[in-house]
Amino acid sequence: MKKQTKVFISLSFILISAFAIAQPAVTAAKKTSSDITAFEFLMKGGIFLIPIGILLFYSLIVIVEKYRYIRKMTRYNSSLLAEIKTDLSSNNFDQALNVLGKDKTAFGSVVSEGVLSMDRPYLERQSNMEKVANIEVGKMEKNLGHLGLIAGIAPTLGFIGTISGVIKIFYSISITENVSISNISGGLYEKMISSGSGLVVGIIAFAGYHLLNGMIDNYALNIQKVSLDFANLLRQKNGNKAQ
Predict the structure, then answer these.
(1) What is the distance, to the nearest Å, from the Cα of residue 221 to the centroid of all Cα atoms in its chain?
(2) How far apart are alpha carbons 156 and 198 in whole angstroms?
(3) DSSP collapsed to 3 states, the chain
(4) Which of 45, 63, 184, 201 could bridge 194 with an S-S bond, Cβ 3.0-4.6 Å?
(5) Is pTM, for the whole model, over 0.85?
(6) Stretch 112-138: mean pLDDT, rounded?
(7) Considering only CA atoms, which of 238, 234, 242 is closest in space to residue 81?
């Protein structure tokens, strides 16, 4: 939780700083020549930018946190099985588990379960390893569903903000009977900011969701290979006898 808070504060500082030093985004109407900052420009999008901004911060926190976690847990040591081969051959299982315990990855956890299940039948041992692999995948996928949800909610909030703004514009026209192009376009461009912001947040969440899931799918494929190599290692240890 402390790590998430630090990331949130850092992201907030970066975004606020970016808004503060940004160059003027647009010129004001004909009546004034003063410039407005990017932050002031965004704030014209209305109250719906508040939940959209919250969703952006949360999406970035989840993406950064899960990326670091998944990258750490799926880092594969190609010499992992070679390091325990001698210990398995001499039935020194405690030493093999000690070596695997130093490997703080999802691969080490799965192979450790295989060593702990050495006295079990082959199918049961493979089933146990598969269960551990599924548990590791579950940990990696935790909160990822939130990104998929945000990818759909953020654009919708943006559209609602724009529609509500358009309704207000036409309501104002019906009251004042002022149908000037400047009045309509001025209010409309401000409300379109809400839609644009929602789409940007949705794209970020959507891209993060699929990129992180791609990393998890890659792990699921590699762990199948590791499980097969482990089974072959045991087969060689027992002189090609049935496991």
Answers:
(1) 20
(2) 7
(3) CHHHHHHHHHHHHHHHHHHHHCCCCCECCCCCCCECCHHHHHHCCCCCHHHHHHHHHHHHHHHHHHHHHHHHHCCCCCCHHHHHHHHHHCCCHHHHHHHHHCCCCHHHHHHHHHHHCCCCCHHHHHHHHHHHHHHHHHHHHCCHHHHHHHHHHHHHHHHHHHHHHHHHHHHHHHHHCCCCHHHHHHHHHHHHHHHHHHHHHHHHHHHHHHHHHHHHHHHHHHHHHHHHHHHHHHHHHCCCCCC
(4) 45
(5) no
(6) 90
(7) 234
CA-CA distance, 56 to 150, in Å (whole number)? 9
Q: How far is CA 195 from the centre of its chain?
A: 22
Q: Which two tokens stand for residue 48?
A: 């719906």
Lowest mean pLDDT segment, chosen from 22-36, 137-151, 161-175: 22-36
* Tokens of residue 225, six digits: 């290979």
Report d(CA 229, CA 2) in Å as an integer.
39
Give CA–CA dist 237/228, Å, rounded: 14
Q: Side-chain half-sphere of 90: how many Cα atoms within 13 Å?
A: 8
